Amino acid sequence: MTHSRRAALLALPLLPALMLAGAPGAAAQPAPKSVLRVAPHADLKSLDPVHGSILITRMHGLMIYETLFAWDSKLQPQPMMVQDYSVSDDKLVWTFRLREGLKFHDGQPVTTKDVIASLKRWMARDTVGVKLAEYTAALEAVDGRSFTLRLKTATGMVPFALGSGVGQIPVIMRESDALTDPMKPVTETVGSGPFRFNRGEWQSGARVVYDRNPDYVPRAEPPDGLAGGRVVKLDRVEWVIMPDAATAAAAIQTGEIDLWEQPSQDLVPVLARSRDVKVETYSSLPGQAMLRPNHLHPPFNDPRARLALAYATDQADFLTAGFGDEKWWRRCDSYFVCGSPNGTEAGAAGYAKPDLATARRLLAESGYKGERVVLTSTYDIAPIGRMAEVAAESLRKAGLNVDLQFSDWGTVTTRQQNRGTLDQGGWNLFVTFASGATMQSPITNIGTNMACERAWAGWPCDAEAERLRNGVVEAVDAASQKAATEALHRRLAEVQPYRVLGQYDQPYARRSNVSGVLTAPILVFWNIEKK
User: Fold this and answer.
1) What does the DSSP assignment read for 423-487?
2) Of residues 266, 310, 244, 227, the one with CA closest to residue 495
3) HSE (CB half, 13 Å, CA atoms) of 367?
């Protein structure tokens, strides 16, 4: 957006209507009675929530798939597809029974064959799944509705893991889909969830459409976070892709869209002045911003170069650029989110303010001699692009030869999976952010998994950090878990899997005739009503 256009928008309490991106479907199709039109933060590129961990794909996954358990608003696991379960006295054998009548969108019943294939694929991809796999001895069907999970070592993480709403989520797919190579995305979109993906009306770059699943039977419990009854009160949800903030701000003020998932903070005052728009938050924890280095190749394969990132950066510069007014953000050097149950800053006190002299010394000690460093980013998600510019400027002051390259978000996330060198299309750095629900636990924090090739993009590798993370997983009470978390955090502060850039609150905006948005790790669309 140009400066003049944004300035004009800020000066006006209400803007004229703008045409939505993407036309309605074919005239022959009857119009749905109740349609919620949403401007999401990004376009949907990847359809497989087990292959990719990006937020828009996770939102898509929760529309059409379900998980065995689900986190409530306090991030505690509750049964979802599971009817009931039991645990042996030695805590090594967990037996689960599925709810009766579960079926996929194609009419086929959900069976334990589907569950086992889905969990095995997830265990090969996700931070939480990989960790659970380390403790798993066997995953076996008892009958069509019951299965057992046998552990090598006792851990209480099982329901929490099977209900994960972060990273690559453990959705249950048809066995035929779940048998796809974990390294290749599934392109089918047949789940058993409360919405069906309308592939015929999907227009990449313009519109994503979900229709209510008329055969879905929700749980009887009241909705709570991602858990409880997923009662759909809409006929259709349409994601209208609006990368331009001015377009989205105008559209929600005029009613052409009903909800804006991530409004730009500098436009929040404009929205707040409109009597027909409400600006609120739906997450109970702030998100975390991060600068992620590639640990496979120089210079950031050396921990001294990664420490230099911490000394070269000031969180306030990034957060101001990304999220505006300080009321929306705060400094925090905890990998596990300040204000969460695990929010320790142990070992990180030295990185609160930049120290360019120390950053330059560490870079020299790491063997860095001015080689080009590629920072890949996007303006599709505006805060990420603005923070990337701050990163480039800050790191250049520390002596890094930064090549800042912008492309669309889909290209950035695809490139993140490239383990090659720069001449093979690889990368050295990227800026991103993740939900507080993702980062608040050593079990779910995607960035602090340092399990080498099994880690998230960047592939950090540190045996001591993994040993300490196992200590958290195996902790038997709150006191021992706290001590184990602090020991892990001290190690992470030394080896810097990524540079924590602080934390922020991301509001959403809705029309006043929209209600029922739930407090949850992800924006979900059941329970929402539009009058």
Assistant:
1) GGT--SEEEEEE-HHHHSSTTT-SSS--BGGGSSTT--B-HHHHHHHHHHHT--SHHHHHHHHHH
2) 310
3) 7
β-pairing, 82-87 vs 372-377, is unpaired
DSSP states of 49-94: TTT---HHHHHHHHHH---SEEE-TTS-EEESSEEEEEE-TTS-EE
Q: Closest Cα partner for 67 from 115, 135, 109?
A: 115
**Does the pLDDT value for residue 252 go beyond 80?**
yes
**SS percent in the chain: helix, strand, coil, step 5:** 30, 20, 50
Kind and range of the H or E run holding 297: none
The residues near 2 (Cβ < 8 Å, ≥ 6 apart) are: none
Asked if 275 and 487 touch (Cβ cutoff 8 Å), the reply is: no
Domain 32-283+507-531 shares a fold with domain 287-504: no
Q: What is the pLDDT of residues 80-134, one digit of tens each?
A: 999 999 999 999 999 999 999 999 999 999 999 999 999 999 999 998 999 999 9
Name residue 139's amino acid: L
The bridge status of strand 35-39 relative to strand 259-260 is: parallel
* SS3 at position 400: coil
Q: Indicate if the alpha-carbon torsion angle 176, 181, 186, 187 is positive or negative.
A: negative
pLDDT, one tens digit per residue, over 322-373 is: 988 888 899 999 999 999 989 999 999 888 889 999 999 999 999 999 999 9
- Topology of domain 287-504 in CATH is Dipeptide-binding Protein; domain 3 (3.10.105)
Residue 106, pLDDT score: 98
pLDDT at 156: 81
Average pLDDT across the chain, whole number: 92
Q: How far is CA 343 from CA 23, 175, 339, 485, in A?
A: 46, 39, 6, 9
Question: Can you say whether the dihedral through the CA atoms of 509, 515, 520, 523 is positive or negative?
Answer: negative
Cis-peptide, bond into residue 159, ω within 30° of zero = no
What pLDDT does 381 receive? Answer: 87
* Count of residues in the chain: 531
Token representation of residue 481: 């878990």
In single-letter form, the type of residue at position 105 comes to H
Q: Residue holding tokens 């509750």?
A: 78
Provide the β-strand partners of residue 260: 39, 509
The tokens for 464 are 């001591």
Domain segments of the chain: what residues? 32-283+507-531, 287-504
> What CATH number should be reported for the domain whose range is 32-283+507-531?
3.40.190.10
Q: Which pLDDT belongs to residue 325?
A: 84
Chain-centre distance of CA 106, in angstroms?
28
Give the position of tokens 């066995």.
175
Distance CA(389)–CA(62), nearest Å, equals 33
Q: In this predicted model, what pLDDT tens digit does every residue of 282-303 receive, in sequence order? A: 988 999 999 999 999 999 999 9
Report d(CA 239, CA 60) in Å as an integer. 10
